[in-house]
Specification:
transmembrane, copper transport, single chain, copper, mainly alpha, 3% strand
Length: 149
Amino acid sequence: MMHMTLYWGKKVTILFDSWKTDSWTSYFLSLLACFLVSVFYQYMEDRRLRFKLLSVKTQKLSNGSAALNSPLLLSNFASRGGKWAASRFAGAILFGVNSAIGYLLMLAIMSFNGGVFIAVVVGLAIGYLVFRCSDEEVVVVEDNSCACS
């Protein structure tokens, strides 16, 4: 039977019927996996935002004077300001991967296990602290705390 309220215990099914925990060892390994995926989510979000910032800087430089020497970001379409630039496709792929990870984390939390909830939230917080709280550059991009955005 699926729980519909928050519960505590070592017996939990996470995402798949085959991912069931029945011992404290498997439960803690599952919590560690949820924690690491949450940290990785924040890392990927940082990469996506930095890539977006880099592509905006590159586009501004290519429209003005000399462009950066970055073949991944520049294509014939990007230098003309087209909407089908390689940087837009790469950004869309990063957004899609990050959205999938965010939704999987949300579904893991929907197991209603308190340990899974805490592992995901602490993983997101630690990942944010490590990867996204730097003051080296001010990134003026939307900063949403939702795990699935």
